[in-house]
Amino acid sequence: METNIKQFVKLVCEELGLDFDVLFGRSRKCPLTQIRNLVCLCLYDHRFNDREIGEIFGRERSTITHARKAAQDLIDTERKFRNYYKKIEDIFEDLQNC
C-alpha cells in the first residue's frame, strides 16, 4: 500500500513541478507545506486515517489532523488551491483506475 501512496505522491510532484524528496522532507515553506497538506487531505478523503498518513509522511497523527484542517481552509477560501486539490484528486482517481 505504501508503494502506491509514494507512486501517487510522485505523480503529484511531477504534475505540480515539485521535488518528491522535498515534499516528504521537513520543510515548512509555503507553498510546499500547503501542497503537502492537500495531499494529506486527499488521502484522508480516500479511506486513509491520520495515523496511516502520518506513518507515510513521518509525522505525528495530530500533525496530520492539523494539516487536513489547514488544507480544507485553503480549499474553502482560495481558488488556486481548489484547483490544486482537483488536480491531486484526479491523479489519485486515475491511479486507482489503473
Primary descriptors:
single chain, 6 helices, mainly alpha, 98 residues
Report on the structure:
The chain has 98 residues and is mainly α. It is 79% helix and 0% strand. Helix 1 packs across helix 6, helix 3 crosses helix 6 and helix 5 crosses helix 6. It is globular and about 30 Å long.
How does the overall form come out from the CA principal axes?
globular
- The total of beta strands comes to 0
Protein structure class: mainly alpha
- Compute the CA-based radius of gyration: 12 Å
What is the chain-wise order of helices and strands? HHHHHH
Distance between the termini: 15 Å
Mean pLDDT rating: 93
Q: Residue share in helices?
A: over 70%
Largest sheet: none
Please, how many helices? 6
Amount of beta strand: under 5%
Uncertain stretches: none
